[in-house]
Amino acid sequence: MTVIKIIDYKAGNAPSVMHAVTHLGLQAEFARSADDLAGASHIILPGVGSAKATMDSLEEMQIITTLERLVLQEKIPFLGICVGLQILFEHSEEGDQKCLGWLKGNVKRFDNARVRVPQMGWNEVRFTDDTESGYFYYVNSYHAIAAESTDIWATSDYGEKFTAAVKRDNIFAVQFHTEKSGEAGLTLLRRFLSC
Amino acid sequence: MLTRRLIACFDIANGRVTKAVQFQDNIDVAPADVLASEMYRAQIDELIFYDIYASPEKRQTDIETVKKVAARVFIPFTVGGGVRDLNDMYEVLKAGAEKISVDSAAVRNPEIIRDGAKAFGSQCVVLSTQVKRDPDVGRFPSGYQVYIDGARKAAGLDAIEWLKRGEALGAGEICLNSIDNDGTLNGYDIPLMKKAEAAVRVPLIASGGAGKPEHLADVFSQTQTQAAIISSMLYSPRLKKNYTPKELKEYLSEKGVAIRLFV
């Protein structure tokens, strides 16, 4: 049975993700504590705002230990979105923040001398597998540099080539806002929720 | 490659879209969520809603309409009008909007930009500004002055200086509306956009004056402006010819503008 949990913290945009899941004809619940994650078949970590605010919120909710058990040990399918991708890496330049470290690599700012920061708008995303490439909506000043190339699921260009999405076992994460990327984004979300 | 964006702008009164010419003479068009959904299906990139009576009536933004829209469109949208403090911003974001637009409220209290950026991130805060040409270059070196309260009241600020200040305070995007061009259907104020892009590094949105597809091609080919606002062209009952976003994008794509287009 599909039991979708969307982690809802103060700075996140969990309601937008909920709208998208509902539109797909599925039901989801907000998770605001470690207990709320019990019984999850899929976990989504939405993200807006900074890596620091997100890590602070997760720590305040005391949810990290349970999340790590469910995702890293029990291998429950997990989808991180935007900052929800960035905090999976070891470190973010944004506020010199230590992150979860589930994936090797770190998070750096776009080069303001070359491009306007934040990157805001629809950019082409090229996947490394048979997922259909297309335009997805981004709002980000920072991007991840995955240390292990096998983790990279998709790339885009913004003054430089950057990691658009990562995939490792049951862990999926996208730098773009899949919940706000029109039909392409909804298709990707549906695909995650059916795995 | 990051594409240019077409943003549909809706002026909302009582949950319905209205259309005005130079801030006056509103006529009713359609329920906001219905028109938003239609534009979404026709490939618009983004939406902006202005609750035009929220400020004059000194009430909060119409949250119910924001929620209805959020349930039907899966592209980013911005809400403005009646947003005066952090709590108003929080309500709008929790209702499903991505960004909040601040305009007159930011001129009265610039700290709202900093507070909003700090609480929710710069990407959530759009500084929208109404500007008008002003020959008094002693007071307004850029040749443009900022106006507030539905473009009725001169704010005494130089437009470009105000944008720089807004960026420094943490605005993540700037929407620049030309009062002179608004509703004229004669094209965007390109000299204004050129001045703005030289002064700030955040993404810019051009607003005011779009009447035909060529105007979009002009602003995108002659400036770095990342996004352009269209409204009359899409749905004004006053115009004989309305365009769908897809038609406009096909035209822009033929003109070599990088745009999101799918079959």
Q: How does this model look, in words?
A:
The complex is a heterodimer of chains A (195) and B (263). Chain A is an alpha/beta fold. Chain A has a domain at 4-107 and 165-193: Class I glutamine amidotransferase (GATase) domain (Rossmann fold), CATH 3.40.50. Helix content of chain A is 24%, strand content 33%. Chain A has five helices and 13 strands. A nine-stranded mixed sheet of chain A has the order 2-1-3-4-13-12-11-8-9. In chain A, helix 1 links the parallel strand 1 and strand 2 (28-31). Chain A is globular. Chain A starts with a strand and ends with a helix. The model of chain A has no long low-confidence stretch (mean pLDDT 95). Chain B is α/β, with parallel strands linked by helices and 263 residues long. Chain B has a single domain (5-254), classed as Aldolase class I (TIM Barrel, Alpha-Beta Barrel). Chain B is 33% helix and 27% strand. Chain B has an eight-stranded parallel barrel with strand order 1-4-5-6-7-10-11-12, surrounded by six helices. In chain B, helix 1 packs parallel to helix 2. Chain B is globular. The model of chain B has no long low-confidence stretch (mean pLDDT 92). At the A-B interface, helix 1, strand 8, strand 9 and helix 5 of A face loops of B.
